[in-house]
Amino acid sequence: MNAPLIGQSIKRKEDYRFLTGGGQFTDDVTLAGQAHACFLRSPHAHARIRGIDTTRARAAAGVVAVFTGDDLARAKVGGLPCGWLITGTDGQPMKEPPHPPLAQGKVRYVGDHVAVVIAETLNQARDAAELIEVDYESLPAVVQAADARKPGAPAVHDAAPDNTCYVWALGDKAAVDRAFASAGHVTTLEFINNRLIPNAIEPRAAVASYSRADDAYTLYVTTQNPHVERLLMTAFVLGLPEHKVRVIAPDVGGGFGSKIYLYAEETVLTWASRQINRPIKWTAERSESFLSDAHGRDHVTRAELALDKSGKFLAMRVTTTANMGAYLSTFASCIPTILYATLLAGQYTTPAIYCEVTAVFTNTTPVDAYRGAGRPEATYVVERLVETAARELKMDRADIRRRNFIKEFPYQTPVALLYDTGDYDATLTEAIKLADVAGFEARRKEAEKRGKLRGLGYSTYIEACGIAPSNVAGALGARAGLYEAGEIRVHPTGSVTVFTGSHAHGQGHETTFAQVVADRLGMSIENVDIVHGDTGRILFGMGTYGSRSIAVGGTAIMKAADKIIAKGRKIAAHLLEAAETDIEYERGIFKVAGTDRKKTFAEVAFAAYVPHNYPLDKLEPGLNESAFYDPTNFTFPAGSHICELEIDPDTGQTRIVNFTAVDDFGKVINPMIVEGQVHGGLAQGIGQALLEGCAYDKDGQLLTGTYMDYAMPRADDLPFFKVATRETPCTHNPLGVKGCGEAGAIGAPAAVINAIVDALGPLGVRDVEMPATPERVWRLIQSANKK
Amino acid sequence: MRAFDYHRPATLKEALSLLRKNQDARPLAGGQSLIPALKLRLAGPPALVDLGAIEELRGIRIDSGTLAIGALTRHSEVASSRDVAMSIPALARLADGIGDRQVRNLGTLGGALANNDPAADYPAAVLGLGATITTNKRAIAADKFFTGLYETALRPGEIITSVAFPLPKRAAYVKFRNPASRFAIVGVFVSEGAGTVRVAVTGAANCAFRARAMEKKLASGFTPEAIARIKVPPDGLNSDLHASAEYRAHLITVIAQRAVAAALAGK
Predict the structure, then answer these.
(1) What CATH superfamily classification does B170-264 receive?
(2) Phi-psi map region of B136: left, alpha, beta (phi>0 left; psi -120 to 50 alpha)
(3) Which chain A residue lies closest to B257 (C-alpha atoms)?
(4) Full-prediction pTM beyond 0.95?
């Protein structure tokens, strides 16, 4: 019998491969006869294409083929689909303008795909791409969400003349308006949730090949969800039968959401591989990633909180304009709606909430889910309001939270979610202790002596992970299922291979999932291998996003393990000549209750594959089980983040000195991996608050198109984090897990900005725009000093 | 990157002859600016003349009150040189703060000066110490060398061979970094030498320049307080996503004071 593995900080099985350069990423794939693709991209944010002359490019050295939007249209290649239908307040479906993989007639953002050149070498493809002559008629562009619906704004799509994709709302408006009318206090804030560029360390890449021999395609691609990629590409764009397309996501170096989507590049490559009957490779250059990976966030919001004089929340009213960019990316429409407005209750009992969201098209890169996806934006709204209200009412910021915390579960929020469990007081209490809030005043005074302004800010967030169940999501507009699939193949000598529809691109599933299976089957972790990322080997999958992998994918595997054990029990009963009901199973041992007669898991597996002594009349040989799991509800991780920082008033520079995160992820499988996930999330959350901000000029040219101008968080921007977890197990999955991948990015921005406002509060500052760059902070101090 | 011919001469003479024969060829020093430009296809010279094998362009030595550094000396060599640390520690620290480790292991003093990036660190030191730049043709005073955005007094066919820094009594360099690129938004090099005070600013304008009003004040009292009230006019300063001209102007005074304090503290 092996020791329990759940809750152990086992070192990551995959790291030997990654640290020794043994990883196999898409760009490492080289197929015989492979050609290389270069995409010609639009230099204009908005232009009519009067004509494209590819004559010189086609004649250039090494060129195999050149394709444009016209070629795809002639071949009846469809547009890239959106996977979530939002129905507006007017009862109409959202506007879904065509999204051709190569532009037809018009380009709509800088980086939009105009043509693809396929050549023997990458340099030849690039050289030839420079020879394509495109006759553009430049058009005025609209860039900012706030400008999209202004009269006279240029229309990005004819199908949406006012640039409006939808106007959508959630909540009881009348009840909210009534509560505001009689409220003792109203706190109002207006802010922008800054647009971010994902920046996974591995750029997007694809290698597509077509085999005439079996009329089938293989696509290696940097995706977080190969089955979804295949479904969307075959069924909606290329009109291919699914069984003729194999999508492989090999090792993938980071996604953060940006690799969920079906992109133009791999779609064009797959189609073109058949046209030229050769494999084709494309790997994004970093500058292409900046232009063409779906961006995140980009909301303009007005938010109001109504309270009574004692600080009890009465109602919340939120109006948001969300920038969709030039086209609807795969899940763009559900991010500022289903994953945003539903989170506005936060950890609080606010009885009435109303949120109206206007999604607009602009001449910018499409915007979609990015780590947290809607939930960081919601948390920012709630936690900035709460802390501002506390300051206005001169209440302690922890007290006002505790006064409004949800304490009884299950709890039905006024914005559709049913929280199953949580203990918000406990996480806050522990965070306050860990952050030594009691000693803050002394630290502030000490900093003051050094000429520094020290501040402390809270953020008590909720997130909803593992979107589910499928039927409810379907009613809300989802065009896909939201379950996960898993399969366990037991080998004759008792080791196992696990096939999961989840996909790891840095999360460590090969370790965590192996821990779950090894623990359940009572074997050593070395006897379990996890296979993911291949539609040819895995029965089905929805992939990895929204912190769903362990809660949904892990549970599917658990269910498959339980089927293995159930069958093993039958085999053991036969081998031990006992009734099945008398067989007890514990950690890899089947035994007859009340006796010392037993069979090990390996003995049972061997009997299943060498069925000499086996109930062949009642039971099939072999030991291989699969399961699909469709959760009954979301999971609700929650936590308390406390940020402490110092501002240099002479330069406006902010330095985070302490950051404490106490998170409730339910049951934790591998504390070390969870801590790593929290660190990464916090880095991105702090990045959003202090450093990262995608900027366009008024003509739609990307100003932050390289690392010279787009500020990524680095190690020396961050403090040593103080991280702890508390466990209130999820009530509706057998592992009791909730998910941890996005928490840091969700909770951190509000904590950082609240801390800056705390530091500058004595000067009369009540808000600072993200990213809180040194100049922005310095200007706030300057204008406060002038008052 | 586009195709180009590659030459790697072993002597300066050979390099100059190659450059004379190929008028559009570019000399390649550490390549930390030129190679990225080639990769992005922002530059596409028909030939590169790699100066990396020319031994006579390397080396650090102190003689008769000056520190002479060969043009092809890498930043990491300056940063770790005992001679530099003993004579002008501020210069060693400056070199140690350029870019990242990879950049420092390849980037060169001469390359940085010839490129004259508006946010580069070395121009501040050269100007702030009143160094002399020696080329294959002549000696150029620092004050005459930096002429504009990526522009210098160098003429076609002219290559920097070494730079001579007079030894100051005290000096320091402080930079306020761009959060994205980590280049200087404002970097200030101050030095106090025999009867002279120099204050050179990089990152703030189209190229490094001297803050003469500050020099004057500091000459009569080398303290941070002496320049605390100097308001630098923002006219002509850079204005970009990361810092407006007004903010840069403010930072020059703040960072200059910190540089003076650091020089006094021997940091």
Answers:
(1) CO dehydrogenase flavoprotein, C-terminal domain (3.30.390.50)
(2) alpha
(3) A650
(4) yes
